[in-house]
Amino acid sequence: MKAARRRKARELLVQALYAAELGHQPLAQAVADQIERRHPHEESMDYIQGLLAELQKNEAGRDERIDAVLEGWSPERVGVVERCILRLGVVELESRSDVPTAVILDEAMGLARHFATEDSARFVHGVLDRLGRELRSTEG
């Protein structure tokens, strides 16, 4: 799959995560709304569906994992956009062994720059870097 198609899939998922969080709606519905609006490429759809399935599993546990590595931040201080990007990054770290950790971190930083700020990008990178070392300690 082309990197640009995965990037579009990630953007769609972050927007859906955000919409689900703020609109108090099921993630699957938010993803369906984004798909209807954006008409992603078939290859992007495969990536979206795979990550959606993982995102719907154990959300509370994922947030606990994120909160456990926050240094100098209370969980309440993490913005909604940043938390959505972190959730997606954790899912990729956990379930997409075909995607190198460095790529996941770079993509998450790009999402944070696009949807938030440069400071958010650095924050997201720091959190996912700690999680990546924990989750993928055997990656070379």
Fold and architecture overview:
The protein has one domain: Orthogonal Bundle (N-utilizing Substance Protein B Homolog, Chain A), CATH 1.10.940. Helices cover about 75% and strands about 0% of the residues. The protein contains seven helices and no strands. Helix 1 crosses helix 2 and helix 6 runs antiparallel to helix 7. The longest helix has 21 residues.
Annotate the secondary structure layout.
Blueprint: H1 3-23, H2 27-38, H3 42-55, H4 59-68, H5 80-95, H6 101-115, H7 118-135
Helix pairs in contact: 1-2, 1-3, 1-5, 4-5, 5-6, 5-7, 6-7
**CATH level-1 class:** Mainly Alpha
**H and E order:** HHHHHHH
* Main beta-sheet annotation: none
Oligomer: single chain
**Count of discrete alpha- or pi-helical segments spanning 4 or more residues:** 7
- Strand portion, in percent? under 5%
Q: Which architecture name does CATH use?
A: Orthogonal Bundle
Q: Give the full name of the CATH homologous superfamily.
A: NusB-like
User: Which fold name corresponds to the CATH topology?
Assistant: N-utilizing Substance Protein B Homolog, Chain A
The count of strands amounts to: 0
Mean pLDDT across every amino acid position: 94
C-alpha termini separation? 22 Å
Helix content: over 70%
Uncertain segments are none
- Structurally, the number of domains stands at 1
Structural class: mainly alpha
| Global geometry | globular
Q: Round the Cα radius of gyration to an integer and report it.
A: 14 Å
